[in-house]
Amino acid sequence: MKNWLICFMIATAGAAAQAQAPVVRFLANVGYSAGGDTLASGNYVSGASYSINAGKGVTLAVGADFRVAEKVTLQATVGHHQDGTNASNGEIAFKRAPVELLGFYEINENFRLGGGLRKAQNAEVTASGAAAGISAAGSYESTLGTVLEGQYFFNSLRYNAAEHKALWGVGVRFVNESFKQANGSTDSKSGSHLAISFLFYY
User: Fold this and answer.
1) Quick check: 194 and 174 in contact, CB under 8 A?
2) 10-32 pLDDT, tens per residue?
3) 129, 90 in Cβ contact below 8 A?
4) What are phi and psi of 5, to 5 degrees?
5) Higher pLDDT, 3 or 191
6) How far from chain centre, in Å, is Cα 193?
7) What are phi and psi of 73, to 5 degrees?
8) What is the 3-state secondary structure (H, E, C) of 52-92?
9) Which of 143, 153, 164 minimizes the C-alpha distance to 197?
10) Are 138 and 127 in contact (CB under 8 A)?
């Protein structure tokens, strides 16, 4: 997967170099997602309930965005996605590092639509303290997922290389993926989710 991503980045950079207005932007985003099947659940000592879901949690990503045509960009990112609970006597968390390859088309100066592929790496449920030994703990295998995303920017997407400037916006996306424990289990858990994120490009 890593070698394939490197080849993609090199090929995309070559295509961008031939575009009329070659632009490479670095990007970062932070957001929150909801959805997916329950991996672990229970109750705190206070009686309040908790659940760890395969599609829920805080999302972070960094990467690069390559302009390959006037209204078309390709984007590669590596991220961190985590849902967890932290009590005084224990902790459970579902962590994964998604790698994404997306393409976007600009509808107008402030809005673009896109989609592509996503593969969650190093997916794992960790448990400590009173939660140690739960059946959900351990490594997980992910399917090759798909992403559909719309992005709205507060400033214009239209500019040339001499006008390099920061872009701020929000994104809404749907991700379709699933997970199963790497212990030979055939029980598949949906990780499909909706997410909203704050975007920064430069």
Assistant:
1) yes
2) 444 444 444 444 489 999 999 99
3) yes
4) -65, -40
5) 191
6) 11
7) -130, 155
8) EECCCEEEEEEEEEEEEECCEEEEEEEEEEEEEEEECCEEE
9) 153
10) no
